[in-house]
Specification:
The complex is a heterodimer of chains A (196) and B (232). With 196 residues, chain A is mainly α. Chain A has six helices and no strands. Classes of the chains: A mainly alpha (196), B alpha+beta (232).
Chain lengths: 196, 232
């Protein structure tokens, strides 16, 4: 009964932490919403530069999107393993998530590099400023998610799974699914809508 | 006490976690909801506003799928604070995003920085050269006339104006229009311009500095044509 009692306390604490983290995610979502609004307003102000259709490659972005969707899925499977206390599977599935996240980030940076290389920089026009800010902010989130994932996996590798680390993973996977949702809207509003 | 705790933990374990089935369904649905709008856009199966509404619809479906299958929001214990927080956030987002776009579009349409500059120069055909106003129509009183391009036609078809009046052509359709001057079989120019591009919901202002009867037409759309007669 003491063990049950303790478990209950932990569950309540978990729930509180998860709710606090959820509140953070929602405020982050608000920030993204403002960046989306800015982009929507400035998207046609290209200052005589080429339009979005000439700058973006849809197949490239589709692959990016599918990679991120898959990473969200593998993070979910990793969470199932974490709740079952299977350390090896947690490391495998989150390891896959990490690699997928890393390739996504690599593709995003490659796209940025190509754009800047062709002279379409952050300073070129209002449209590009808002594009780089919105997509770059998402990329920064992915970067911090990867750092977080890397360190958490390191801890799990060394110390094994414990309730504290499972809680960390729960929040991390929330964060990761959240970034996936934000990306779906970037995919639709920034990339697909440019070609409508 | 013990039964209460047990009851609590029984409820606790399941809602937070998904099952492998829910993750697979969520993943497959989200891939499908990504591919459908992608191919709709690439193959242009639908057009314009319908396509726009459809892909936004798929993004929202995608959101619902991810929230239900990955974030498991629907299976949260009561009271559903997380869900309430999400709904209120979405409410604020709708206000911020929709209102921004709405207001800025109107501002854009009515008066953006470029429009002000255009108004000063082309509208009145007044130019500032070394502090002095020059131009054919400087200091002349003028009336403004308007032609609306709407639903693929031009209204009115004929405009009668005096020299130095202004003619505003407004594009109320959702597609960009190009106006060429002169009859289609014999393209000409007006005030030095052979054509004018008018983006959706924007306008172009022409100062009527050349007398005579002048025709205009859209080379891409048969319904858009008309003429304006300028008397000295």
């Amino acid at each position: 009964m003491v063990a049950k009692h303790k478990e209950n306390h932990e569950a309540v604490a978990d729930e509180r932490v998860a709710f606090g983290f959820w509140v953070y995610l929602m405020t982050d979502l608000l920030m993204f919403a403002v960046l989306f609004a800015t982009f929507a307003v400035l998207r046609n102000n290209t200052h005589g530069g080429p339009s979005a259709t000439e700058l973006f490659s849809l197949p490239f972005v589709l692959i990016e999107t599918l990679i991120l969707l898959t990473s969200s899925f593998t993070a979910g499977i990793g969470m199932l393993a974490a709740h079952m206390g299977n350390k090896k599977q947690v490391l495998t599935w989150f390891g896959v998530t990490f690699l997928l996240g890393l390739s996504f980030l690599g593709m995003e940076l490659y796209e940025f590099r190509e754009l800047i290389h062709e002279g379409h920089t952050w300073q070129s026009s209002g449209a590009l400023s808002s594009f780089f800010t919105l997509v770059g902010t998402h990329g920064l989130h992915i970067t911090s998610g990867l750092i977080w994932m890397g360190t958490t996996l390191g801890y799990i590798w060394v110390r094994g799974l414990n309730s504290h680390l499972v809680r960390k993973l729960t929040l991390l996977s929330l964060f990761w699914h959240f970034l996936d949702i934000v990306w779906v809207f970037i995919f639709t509003i920034v990339y697909l809508m440019a070609f409508v | 006490m013990s039964s209460k705790v047990k009851h609590h933990t029984d409820q606790e374990v399941t809602p937070q976690q998904g099952t492998i089935r829910s993750y697979i369904i969520g993943f497959l649905l989200s891939v499908v909801f990504t591919l459908i709008p992608y191919y709709l856009v690439v193959y242009k199966t639908l057009e314009g506003t319908v396509l726009l509404a459809t892909i936004i619809g798929f993004a929202v479906l995608q959101l619902v799928v991810q929230v239900v299958f990955f974030l498991h929001l629907g299976r949260e214990k009561k009271p559903r604070y997380n869900l309430l927080f999400l709904i209120s956030t979405v409410g604020i987002i709708l206000v911020v995003v929709v209102a921004s776009i709405w207001i800025m579009n109107h501002l854009h349409y009515n008066m953006s920085a470029t429009d002000v500059a255009d108004k000063v120069s082309t509208d009145e055909a007044v130019y500032n050269v070394e502090g002095k106003q020059v131009g054919t129509c400087s200091g002349e009183a003028s009336t403004s006339h308007k032609i609306e391009l709407k639903n693929g036609t031009a209204v009115p078809r004929h405009v009668y104006a005096r020299l130095c009046d202004t003619l505003t052509i407004v594009n109320l359709d959702e597609t960009a229009r190009t106006i060429n001057f002169g009859p289609p079989q014999d393209p000409g120019s007006y005030a030095g311009e052979t054509s004018a591009a008018i983006y959706p919901r924007r306008n172009t202002v022409i100062t009527l500095t050349e007398p005579g009867m002048h025709e205009f037409y859209d080379p891409a759309l048969n319904g858009v044509f008309g003429d304006f007669t300028v008397t000295p």
